[in-house]
Amino acid sequence: MLNQQLPLADYVVVVFYLLAILAAGFWFARLTKTGRDFFVGGNRIPWWAAGISLYMTTFSAWMFTGAASFVYNTGWFGFLYMAVKPIGFGIGFWLAAVKWRRARLTSPVEYVEDRYNHPTRLLLSVVLVLSMMYWPGHHLASVSKIGAPALFPNTPWAVDALILFFGAFVLVYTVAGGIWAVSITDVLQFLILLSVCIVVIITILASGDVGTPMQFLASVPPVEFEHSIRGNTVYTHWYLIGIIASGVFGNVVGDKAQRFFIVRDEQAARKTGWLAIALFFTSPILFGLPPLAGKLLWPEISQLAAMTGTTKPDESIFIAVVMRYMPAGVVGLFLAAMIAASMSALDSVWNTVSAIVSVDLYKGHLRPQATDREVLWVGRFTVVGLTVAAVVMALFIVHSDLGIFTISNIVLGLIAIPVTVPLLMGVISKRPATWSAIPSILSGIAIAAVTRFDLNWSLGPQYLAVILVCLLPLVGSGWFGRLYHQQKLQGTAAVVAMGALLWLLFAFVSAPTMEIGVSRNGADSLWLLLALAGVVLCNGLFLPLFARDVVAPQERVARFFEKLQTPVDIASELGEETGEAAPNAIIGWAAAGMGVVPLILLLVSGGQNAMIYILLSAILMAIAGLFLKTATGR
Known about the structure:
The chain is mostly helical. Helices cover 75% and strands 1% of the residues.
């Protein structure tokens, strides 16, 4: 039976851990003297720290709430969702990692000025900031949603109170430590979560509650490729395809791209990506199996006593499993690491958005003569404003009927994909004209809104449609420009033909016989016609600018791609010092300290659950030894 109230030891561990994270933020503040230190760590972040941090930016408590709920509700389909994510990331990483490092950036949209133009940089900055303002609220909602029923069971106001507390907590150490604090604390959170999840899985299988490993796997119902969550959103195999396609773009731009250009050179950027891919492949096992076990243990999770009072009890399935099997103190350690991991994902977004606001909007548009110190303080003040926005967004999410998983996927389709497509294409291809990103973004947002709210398409087909519409202006702008330059009527006719073909395509795929996850025929939609007319008009208005690039190619674009072909010269660009040994020692001693905690808890417990405490301590001590050995070079 699941205990409703945690032992005092768990609360002590949570408080101690959060204070340690806060101290880490202030310790790394001494490395943050300029805007470049705050945003890219002086390009001295070790590749392994950047790789783990890259993985953790996609992680957070959402993995234990929204994603765990998805696995609980859909079974093996949710497991497959976790398994296919590395495919899209791997493609995007292969295309862009080296180029991101050679771009020599401070902000993930800083390059847009050279690759596209100033108006595009301004639009991308504003839209990206608006789209990324959702994710901190998403992380706050996730961590509060999983922490409240465990720390304060049957307390209706606990979720709202934790949102306010965690928002203020992250604000303090993000403003102090910058990207160094973000990256290194990411590593600590990952190591603890990894250790606890391994122990949880071993304990579940050893308990016999779900049978032998083969019996456990056989007990889970066979995979099905159509699921409806809360009657609002349908997930089919097209959703998995859409996740792969959107991952090509979304997992290697924005705050994710930042992890590639905070390291020393191209080789480090490649290692960063390969490590992240390897970690992605562990997700289904580490974070998919416990919710599957929970489905067998509690087919109706709403019956769990500790979950009463929550609006969506299935989003608490992971912590329910942990609380059932882990002894006093270990639950607190898991909660603390998960809370800190979520806050790390949150402050990662804040660090990126503050870079965009201070570097791209403030220095790039409002005050070009701003000093580096001034940029640093603008970035810090931006984080304060983002905190308020995140708290408001988190309160909206937790009180919505849709659920964390569904809301995050809707935001991804509506805003995130239209922004990420031109961001990636601008780095990997010379085809997009300098003005093509603006019609790409506007067209993508229009089609995303229509397919979601009028045609009622499910998320997979919606993602694919938005990607297609965003790619057409980018890839076709050179061809449209050449036709328009030769004869204006030809260029205009080509854009109109593009709109007509899109209408035929949408009408065809939404026919009832196609059955790909759509619920209304596009041929009958007035809003689809209006949106496609807007796409044609938007691209048509930019035809003269497309043609201008054909007649007179921009020299700044040529210089930008020349820079992408130029390897990083570490000696001249960074100097001789690397500073990579210190983080190894810090993480090693921190892991060793955490490895002592289970032994202390074992003594306090009087020897109960000895194997769990000893196993967790052994894993953490082994990790500590590895890091300390690399720090000393022995």
